[in-house]
Design brief:
Elements lengths: L10 E2 L8 E2 L1 H7 L9 E3 L4 E3 L8 E3 L52 E6 L2 E8 L9 H7 L2 E3 L7 E4 H14 L3 H12 L11 H19 L42 E8 L4 E2 L20 H10 L13 H4 L8 E3 L1 E7 L11 E3 L5 H11 L9 E5 L3 H4 L3 H6 L11 E5 L10 H7 L15 H12 L7 H21 L1 H28 L3 H17 L20 H10 L10 H24 L6 H28 L4 H5 L32 H8 L12 H4 L1 H6 L3 H37 L5 H34 L4 H6 L44 H54 L3 H28 L11
Parallel strand pairs: 5-7, 6-9, 10-15, 15-16
Antiparallel strand pairs: 1-2, 1-3, 3-4, 6-7, 8-9, 10-13, 11-12, 13-14
Helix pairs in contact: 5-13, 12-13, 14-26, 14-27, 16-23, 17-18, 17-23, 17-24, 23-24, 23-26, 26-27
Length: about 950
């Protein structure tokens, strides 16, 4: 029974509340305002899927949904239930027998039926346009009804605004491709026969492109796309970065205050690939250069005019340099390079570039110069983070000066930095030269935030791989704009968390610095302070001055320095070329075995499954390294067939570094270094035990055997390398013990709560492991020296290491004006200090380094506290500026009589007023007595 007229009910609507049962007329009438509900029809036994167009439902355009009075009274009524003879399937034959298609999926007969795609599926609706003399065009009438036509010339398909918005949200949040989304709509329309639903996938892609552009135009306050103001004008930038004229007033001292430094970070993303296009000339660019991707024609002209110059790096072999010229034939673009603000993670408008090969400097030059031209009027200082800045910044000015298509103001001061994660992959010097910890004005920033942005962009990267260049550019622009928008609306909350962290950390950093400050003399404070000030002033022109933050005492030659010296000299008679490198490999294997044994013992007899896996992997790698080393050793040791066939063995038990004796003073026995034959050593070395001490090194045979077999020159090479190895081990030992003493004095003793004490003792345990490793390596090394026949001078320099030498108390490490070359410190603390040096020791140098680094940490946290406070003001100013701009648009549209645009502008103004008010309330909640905001900047 029909719920309304009490007649026979044949339809029910699952989309309506309580699924009312309705007759045909009542169903048509009640759904006049809900034409996209999916209904079901009673067959006598069950309800089957049906469609509203089968009830005779019509959609009237204009007149508030009422029929147009000017429409012809004789116009034929809709032919419900009839269908066209054909329909298109997504796969297979385009012609289908209508008898095989359910009635509600058949396109109806009649040219005025429109295929409308909604979130509820695909519908066929009879559309009656307004026919009044002053009526708007048919496409515009569809827009008034919140329907977007797929074409403006006799449209047969339209998409509801809601389905387009839903698709964009799915695409941005979930990375749903157009094909997957339309496949979902087909299943919503008919879960049993989705393949019989008409295919409007291509129309969806085309309309979605236009819809993205319309959205960006509306959000940016443009009523049309005819008069672009500048590059990147359709997208938003960071609300918290200083932008003169927007969130920074005209009275700000931009040149002198470090707070107005722009912090940027660059990086490449090789997930955003792009295939070669079939018809590159048959393309339509809707918003080229008005988003985040750079304008295509000027960029292509720049690439053609700029040669790629491969520059060698003096640092480590980074992928961004070594693969800069890597080409992949099937790809038009191997990825993208971008510039973002380093403090808040917002992409810079008109700065994202495509890579043609690898991450070449000419690509990143184009990105950086365009980023530094965006709202930068009056700003003279830039802090630039990039993974390979140690090489990239060397010739930046020269490259830009040589190009007619790039420009940077000569007065712009660029300070180079490397992110905290990447800087540890560089050589040692890069840490103090480029780490943000040592950059004045950086605040507490890691320089790696752009890495988190790629995860957002990569949501859609896979679906852009086969798109046309304009479509790909628009989709990436929209995704990046959404990322910036989400950052903007959450900026006040983010800054409040940063400010709380900064305020707490400033107190801790000041306390830590004061503890170091009290432990040194006033003269040392002045001298070290002058060193820091001079370095920070000169670092822009010469980053090497930052080496003052590293230990300055000259170290004894390392094993690598000795190896290099031996390789550069002519090979000794009787020694194969490359023997020094072969022995160095053996020393490295020996060290790795010692470290593995210590790791095994520290983890006890029942380690976790993950640790057992780690041990097994390291042991497997060691076994492979040993096998290669032993195979090469037959060349350098001249093992002939007679020795190779021998199977002699004395069954000597391994008395060297055992797992259970690592803590004993005599953990290393010289039994492993007794005179042994080549056959004995090779037999024991070839065992499958990766912890076996028997490597075929000259020290395993003994000096007498080496002389007898004319291997004494090779033994001399090992002795020199062993001295370098001993220097390395003692240097590591000094570093670890000094760190331990400083941590005891500055962290463990002043710790006031359980968490601080726990953290401090974890640091001490880590250092103790390093001490054990260095001590064991040194003891093994000294036994090898004895076996190689080292003379008394060498053994006097490299004395025996006792347990008591590793137990120096923190009291012995008290910093002061006294020299530490006395009985309170073990012999290895003074072995490298020149005899004419009375004012320095290893420990005083350590206090200098710790003092400088504690001061750097204190300064960065104080800067962070001040920066975040200023950023709160800039964020409020930004929101107020946007609200004021929308108010101006509102007034202009209101005077022009454009009520719709005026209402939208008023709504946008209210949104930004609310964001500004929210930011002020968050600030006042943290600072009840402070109001730094000045309305009407």
């Amino acid at each position: 029974i029909c719920k309304i007229c009490q007649k026979d009910g044949v339809y029910r609507c699952p989309d309506c509340m309580h699924q009312p049962l309705l007759c045909t007329n009542c169903c048509r009438t009640t759904h006049a305002s809900h034409p996209f509900h999916r209904i079901q029809q009673w067959t006598g036994n069950f309800f089957e899927d049906s469609a509203l167009h089968m009830t005779g439902l019509q959609l009237h355009l204009g007149h508030g949904g009422a029929p147009c009075p000017s429409a012809s009274a004789n116009e034929a009524p809709p032919l419900s239930g009839q269908s066209r003879p054909t329909t298109a399937g997504k796969d297979g034959d385009q012609t289908k027998d209508v008898d095989n298609i359910p009635l509600h999926l058949r396109p109806p007969v009649g040219s005025k039926h429109l295929t409308i795609v909604d979130v509820t599926g695909v519908h066929f609706v009879l559309v009656r346009p307004c026919q009044c003399p002053n009526a708007e065009s048919y496409p515009l009438q569809l827009f008034r009804a919140k329907l977007c036509p797929s074409t403006f010339d006799k449209p047969s398909t339209a998409f509801t605004f809601s389905v387009l918005d839903d698709f964009l949200r799915d695409n941005v949040e979930c990375g749903t491709s157009g094909m997957n989304y339309y496949s979902k709509l087909r299943r919503v329309t008919s879960n049993v026969f989705p393949h019989l639903v008409v295919d409007r996938y291509r129309e969806l892609l085309r309309v979605a492109q236009q819809w993205r552009l319309l959205k960006l135009l509306k959000w940016s306050g443009f009523q049309d796309n005819m008069n672009p103001s500048k590059d990147g004008d359709l997208v938003i930038f960071c609300a918290a970065c200083p932008q003169p004229g927007i969130n920074v007033g005209p009275t700000a001292n931009l040149d002198e205050s470090w707070k107005y430094t722009r912090a940027v970070v660059m990086d490449g993303n090789f997930k955003a690939e792009h295939m070669h296009e079939r018809r590159p000339d048959d393309q339509v660019w809707l918003m080229d250069g008005r988003g985040f991707m750079v304008r295509n024609p000027p960029y292509q002209a720049y690439l053609k005019a700029t040669p790629h110059i491969t520059e060698k790096s003096s640092c480590n072999n980074h992928k961004a340099i070594s693969q800069a010229s890597a080409s992949r034939g099937k790809l038009n673009s191997t990825g993208v390079g971008a510039t973002a603000c380093a403090r808040h993670g917002c992409f810079y408008p008109h700065s994202v570039v495509d890579f043609q090969k690898g991450e070449r400097q000419l690509n990143m030059d184009y990105s950086l110069t365009h980023a530094l031209s965006y709202n930068m009027t009056g700003i003279e200082n830039v802090l630039c983070f990039y993974d390979i800045n140690c090489a990239y910044m060397k010739n930046l000015r020269r490259r830009i000066k040589s190009s007619d298509l790039l420009h940077l103001p000569p007065s712009l001061r660029i300070t180079a930095g490397i992110g905290m994660w990447h800087v540890h992959g560089h050589k040692k010097e890069c840490y103090t030269r480029y780490s943000p910890l040592f950059i004045k004005g950086a605040g507490w920033v890691d320089g790696e935030i752009i890495e988190t942005l790629w995860s957002t962009l990569n949501i859609v990267s896979a679906s852009t791989r086969g798109m046309t260049s304009p479509h790909r550019q628009e989709l990436l622009d929209f995704q990046m704009n959404d990322s910036n928008f989400m950052k903007m609306i959450r900026m006040a909350d983010s800054l409040s968390r940063k400010l709380k962290t900064a305020r707490a950390s400033v107190v801790l950093a000041r306390d830590a610095f004061e503890r170091f400050n009290k432990a040194i003399t006033p003269e040392q404070q002045r001298n070290w302070g002058r060193q820091e000030e001079t370095a920070l002033l000169r670092r822009v022109h010469d980053p090497s001055v930052m080496d003052v933050f590293e230990i300055q005492l000259k170290k004894a030659p390392t094993v690598h320095a000795v190896e290099l010296r031996l390789l550069e000299k002519s090979p000794r008679q009787g020694v194969h070329h490359g023997a020094a490198s072969w022995i160095t490999r053996g020393l490295a294997i020996e060290e790795a075995e010692i470290i593995l044994n210590i790791y095994r013992k520290d983890n006890g007899p029942n380690p976790s499954e993950l640790k057992r896996l780690t041990i097994a992997r390291r042991a497997e790698k060691l076994s492979a390294d040993r096998s290669r080393f032993i195979a090469d050793g037959r060349i350098y040791l001249r093992v002939d067939d007679e020795f190779e066939r021998s199977d002699e063995s004395d069954g000597r038990t391994d008395l060297t570094l055992g797992q259970d004796t690592l803590d004993d003073e005599d953990a290393v026995s010289n039994d492993g270094y007794s005179d042994s034959s080549l056959v004995e050593v090779f037999g024991r070395a070839s065992s499958n035990d990766p912890t076996s001490p028997y490597l075929p090194l000259p020290s395993k045979f003994g000096s007498a055997y080496c002389k007898a077999k004319k291997l004494h020159r090779l033994a001399q090479v090992e002795l020199e390398l062993r001295m370098g190895q001993a220097n390395d081990a003692l240097h590591g030992l000094r570093l670890a013990l000094a760190d331990k003493a400083v941590i005891f004095r500055g962290v463990v003793r002043p710790a006031t709560n359980y968490s601080m004490r726990t953290w401090a003792w974890q640091m001490i345990q880590s250092i103790d492991t390093s001490v054990k490793q260095c001590a064991a390596i040194y003891r093994q090394c000294r036994l090898a020296m004895i076996s190689l026949g080292a003379d008394s001078d060498i053994l006097d320099r490299y004395q025996e290491l006792q347990k008591s030498h590793l137990l120096a108390t923190a009291a012995a490490f008290t910093q002061g004006a006294h020299d530490h070359r006395d009985s309170h410190l073990p012999w290895f603390w003074t072995m490298d200090i020149p005899k004419d040096t009375d004012s320095k020791s290893w420990l005083s140098e350590f206090y200098r380094i710790h003092w400088l680094r504690a001061k750097a940490a204190k300064d960065r946290w104080e800067e962070e506290n001040e920066l975040v406070t200023s950023e709160f003001v800039w964020v409020v100013n930004f929101f107020q500026y946007r609200a004021k701009r929308w108010n101006e648009i509102y007034m202009a549209k209101k005077l022009a009589g454009n009520r719709g645009a005026a209402c939208y502008a008023a709504r946008q103004q209210a949104v930004y007023d609310r964001l500004a008010e929210q930011a002020e309330l968050i600030w006042q909640g943290m600072n009840p007595d402070d109001n730094p905001f000045h309305h009407g900047m």
